[in-house]
Design brief:
With 163 residues, the chain is an alpha/beta fold. The longest helix has 17 residues. The chain starts with 5 loop residues before the first strand and ends with a helix. It binds adenosine-5'-diphosphate. The site of adenosine-5'-diphosphate has 17 residues, from helix 1 and strand 4.
Amino acid sequence: MNNKKIAIYPGTFDPITLGHLDILERGSKLFDKIIVTIAVNQSKVPLFSIEERIEMIHDAITPYNNVTVEKFEGLLVDFATQQNACVILRGLRAISDFEYESQMALMNQHLADDVTTLFLMPNEKYTYLNSTIVKDVAKFGGNVEKFVTKLVVKKLISKFKGM
Ligand code: ADP
C-alpha cells in the first residue's frame, strides 16, 4: 500500500509568482510529494503557453526535491485520484478568494469526498499578489523583480517586447 501523502497544487500559473512559491514551500514541509498541476482547460486565456509555464515552474521548484509539475485536462478530482493524491492544495489570500474557492472545494468534495481541499495562507507580503497584477505591471515596463523569479522576469520582458 502507498502511504505517501501526496497533494496536487492546481492553478493557471500564468506565470508562477513568489506567492505560489510561498504556498509550495509550506506545502512541501507537510506532504511527501506535491504535484504542481497546470489546468489546460481553463476559461482564462493565458499569456504564456503550457510549455513556457512548465519551464518557469521547473526552474522555480529546483530547490524542492519533493515537488514536480504536470499538466492536466479534465476533472481535477480524477487527476488527483489517478495520482493517488489525497489533498488539493489551494492558496487563500483574502476574503475575495473565499467565494470562488469555497464553491470549487464543495463541488470537488461532492465529486470525490476522499479528496480534501486544503487552504494555506501565504506570508502577508504576498496577500495582494497575483499573476494578473504582475503581467499588468510588466507590460508597462514596471519592475516585478520582488514578485517573481529571475527567469520569469526575463520571460515577461521578452514576451512584452515581442508584442
Ligand atoms: P487559478 O486560476 O486556479 O486561481 P492561479 O495560478 O491564479 O490559478 O492560482 C493557483 C492557486 O494559487 C490558487 O489557489 C490561488 O489562490 C493561489 N495563489 C495565487 N497567488 C497567490 C499568492 N500571492 N499567495 C497565495 N496563494 C496564491
